[in-house]
Amino acid sequence: QVQLVESGGGSVQPGGSLRLSCAASGSIFSHYTMGWYRQAPGKQRELVARMRSVVTNYADSVKGRFTISRDNAKNMVYLQMNSLKPEDTAVYYCNTYPAGVYWGQGTQVTVSS
Asked: Is pLDDT at 1 greater than 70 in this prediction?
């Protein structure tokens, strides 16, 4: 069982950057592949990035713009988001991959002119 707290969201203009953070607790963090998910209004939640050890995978829509990283000593996962686009607007969540049933509150990312 993992408890998750996301932070770092905000409002930016297209082309801007944000760095999201996820604090995980309640289990042994290093045992899990971690992912970042997002859900836009009226749309299904989607996986945008995941990381197991040093191996990463990204959705096609964010490749080259987003970077997932982790610090196992601190039980933290990060998502560096650059060159943000309006279509990146969503609530962003972290979770294991595959996702467990326990979700945090998420953090809102809004990209608009």
From this structure: no
Residue 68 amino acid letter: I
Give the Cα separation of 43 and 7 in Å (integer). 21
pLDDT of residue 25: 85
Of 99, 98, 56, give the one whose Cα is nearest residue 78. Answer: 56
Query: What does the block give as tokens for 36?
Result: 């970042």
Coil, strand, or helix at residue 60? Answer: coil
User: Amino acid identity, residue 42?
Assistant: G
Residue 22 tokens, joined:
């996820």
DSSP 3-state of 73: helix
pLDDT in tens, 28-61: 788 889 999 999 999 999 999 999 989 999 999 9
